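Subject: design request, 91 residues
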């Protein structure tokens, strides 16, 4: 079953290549959507795909890349809409 999740990732998550690594991991799990930095130093991700793959991606987001210190991940589940064709870094 396909699902969509909105993630707010808090902690030391900017300046540690989190977005580039998230893009690689998302593509590995066939996750579509986007990741972007927020002005407050946190990250926002909108991701969709097969529920099992999405959960694996979310599990990775709880750790992040080397150098990241993830303090909290807020997850909001949404209805899958299939509007994304890739996983992109938004600027």
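Subject: RE: design request

Done. Sequence follows.
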């Amino acid at each position: 079953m396909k699902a969509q999740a909105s993630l707010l990732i808090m902690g030391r998550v900017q300046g540690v290549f989190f977005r580039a690594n998230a893009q690689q991991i998302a593509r590995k799990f066939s996750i579509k959507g986007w990741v972007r930095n927020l002005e407050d130093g946190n990250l926002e991700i909108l991701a969709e795909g097969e529920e099992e793959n999405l959960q694996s991606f979310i599990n990775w987001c709880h750790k992040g890349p080397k150098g990241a210190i993830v303090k909290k991940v807020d997850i909001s589940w949404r209805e899958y809409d299939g509007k994304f064709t890739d996983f992109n870094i938004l600027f």
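Helices lie at 18-28, 51-61.
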